[in-house]
TrEMBL record:
<keyword id="KW-0963">Cytoplasm</keyword>
<dbReference type="GO" id="GO:0004435">
    <property type="term" value="F:phosphatidylinositol-4,5-bisphosphate phospholipase C activity"/>
</dbReference>
<keyword id="KW-0234">DNA repair</keyword>
<keyword id="KW-0479">Metal-binding</keyword>
<keyword id="KW-0227">DNA damage</keyword>
<dbReference type="InterPro" id="IPR036775">
    <property type="entry name" value="DNA_pol_Y-fam_lit_finger_sf"/>
</dbReference>
<dbReference type="GO" id="GO:0006281">
    <property type="term" value="P:DNA repair"/>
</dbReference>
<dbReference type="InterPro" id="IPR022880">
    <property type="entry name" value="DNApol_IV"/>
</dbReference>
<feature type="binding site">
    <location>
        <position position="105"/>
    </location>
    <ligand>
        <name>Mg(2+)</name>
    </ligand>
</feature>
<dbReference type="InterPro" id="IPR001126">
    <property type="entry name" value="UmuC"/>
</dbReference>
<keyword id="KW-0235">DNA replication</keyword>
<keyword id="KW-0460">Magnesium</keyword>
<feature type="compositionally biased region" description="Basic and acidic residues">
    <location>
        <begin position="417"/>
        <end position="433"/>
    </location>
</feature>
<dbReference type="GO" id="GO:0035556">
    <property type="term" value="P:intracellular signal transduction"/>
</dbReference>
<dbReference type="InterPro" id="IPR053848">
    <property type="entry name" value="IMS_HHH_1"/>
</dbReference>
<dbReference type="Pfam" id="PF00817">
    <property type="entry name" value="IMS"/>
</dbReference>
<dbReference type="GO" id="GO:0005829">
    <property type="term" value="C:cytosol"/>
</dbReference>
Length: 433
């Protein structure tokens, strides 16, 4: 904990849904649910209008539909979320060089590195207000909630207090006063299981937790968590803001039009990507020790797993073998829309391959499934040769209905077309390199 309120936590409000409302003027002020469109899908984000009906993240699409049948259910446009996130992160970096992104819509900023005249409550409050105005501006109208406090823990807690479109500054010295009445679940690392264990011990609030001795907590929750919780119950948190390190890695990834469900196909794709990573590494004279895979599920949850070798490699076959093993541990039920393989921890030298002379595996035959004929997911961007840009309002029975509007237009007209109308096209951004 610092003596000044110099850690800022920014959290965009209902981010995915807010981007959709920005780009689809007819949905502004209405319930919007991103995710949960498929049979087994879950809700990724619900707009505040939909939250009023009790719809929340991770709820099944079926339940969301039952609670809020008149909501717009959209399949999500990751490219738009990523672009918008980049603008926000840049605005944060313009304020301070020390920015730690936690996800597309959340980051810590170290105001102590921002070169401000002082870190008084009045000063950081002004900085927070200006930052929220700036985020609204660069994103074309999105709102963010900000918390500013003397530690990461308190800044994050503070950013939850005045959602959406609000700000809370916790003056140094008042941290415990704020925390004591709160449920223990606000403490990072206290999930449902820990919360239940504490509840059985009669501990519900942070004030109650503060009365428990360190030894008792350790015997209740184990060493690591017990010590950690004892400290956080006293607002003791000295974790620094760590700027994203320059990622020195080589990776290859692919996104797929049709959600992949076939594990053998996924293994084949990873193998192909791993070989390409190996080729690129050898071309650049790199080798690396840490092999990672990235898997994005149908609901945009992104999983990554990595494994570190005892010595560096640049061998595609080795990278592929590790990538496939990492995939083996993941639950991909519901489908996968992105797969990737990367190697990091790069060194510009290669050690003798410890795996010896593993025989090169036979080439993997990879055939991607045809994109489904009804490739008109709700919410997707489209362009019509005459009508211009719009988005898929719905589809079925060979017909796709499009609303022609963009972030810059008023709510636009709705038109229907045959699904195979040659004048109608899906719009995707050019792939990034
Ligand atoms: Mg958020």
């Amino acid at each position: 904990m610092r003596a000044t309120a110099s850690i800022l936590h920014l959290d965009l409000d209902a981010f995915f849904a807010a981007v959709e409302q920005r780009d689809k003027p007819s949905l502004r002020g209405k319930p919007v649910i991103v995710g949960g469109t498929g049979g087994r899908g879950v809700v990724s984000t619900a707009s505040y209008e939909a939250r009023k009906f009790g719809v929340g993240s991770a709820m099944s699409g079926r339940e969301a539909r039952a609670r809020c049948p008149h909501a717009a259910f959209l399949s999500g446009r990751f490219h738009a979320y990523r672009e918008t996130s980049k603008l926000v992160m840049q605005a944060l970096r313009d304020l301070s060089p020390l920015v730690e992104p936690l996800s597309l819509d959340e980051a810590f900023v170290d105001l102590a590195a921002a070169g401000l005249d002082d870190l008084d409550v009045a000063t950081v409050t002004e900085v927070g207000t200006e930052l929220r105005r700036r985020v609204h501006e660069v994103t074309g109208g999105l709102t963010a909630t900000v918390g500013i406090a003397s530690s990461k823990f308190l800044a994050k807690v503070a950013s939850e207090l005045d959602k959406p479109d609000g700000m809370t500054v916790v003056p140094p010295g008042s941290e415990l006063e704020l925390l004591r009445p709160m449920d223990v679940k606000v403490i990072p690392g206290v999930g449902p299981a820990t919360r239940e264990r504490l509840r059985r011990a009669g501990i519900h609030t942070i004030a109650e937790l503060e009365l428990v001795s360190e030894d008792e907590l350790v015997s209740l929750l184990g060493q690591a968590q017990g010590h950690g919780l004892w400290r956080l119950a006293r607002a003791q948190d000295s974790r620094p803001v760590v700027a994203e390190r320059e990622a020195k890695s080589i990776s290859v990834e692919g996104t797929y039009d049709a959600d992949l469900n076939d594990r053998k196909l996924m293994a084949g794709l990873l193998t192909r990507q791993a070989k390409e990573v190996g080729t690129r590494m050898r071309k650049n004279g790199f080798s690396g020790r840490t092999v990672s895979i990235k898997v994005r599920l149908h609901d945009f949850t992104t999983l990554s797993r990595s494994s570190t070798l005892s010595s560096p490699t640049d061998d595609g076959t080795t990278i592929a073998r590790i990538a496939r093993a990492l995939l083996g541990d993941l639950d991909t039920t519901g489908g996968v829309r992105l797969l990737g393989v990367g190697v990091s921890g790069l060194a510009d030298w290669v050690q003798e391959d410890l795996f010896g002379d593993a025989p090169d595996e036979e080439e993997v035959e990879v055939t991607l499934p045809e994109p489904p004929r009804r490739s008109w997911p709700p919410g997707a961007d489209v362009v019509h040769d005459e009508m211009g840009p719009g988005w898929v309002w719905g589809s079925g029975s060979g017909v796709v209905t499009v609303r022609f509007e963009t972030a810059e237009t008023p709510p636009g007209p709705v038109r229907s077309f045959r699904m195979d109308d040659p004048a109608l096209h899906r719009w995707e951004p050019p792939p990034e390199e």
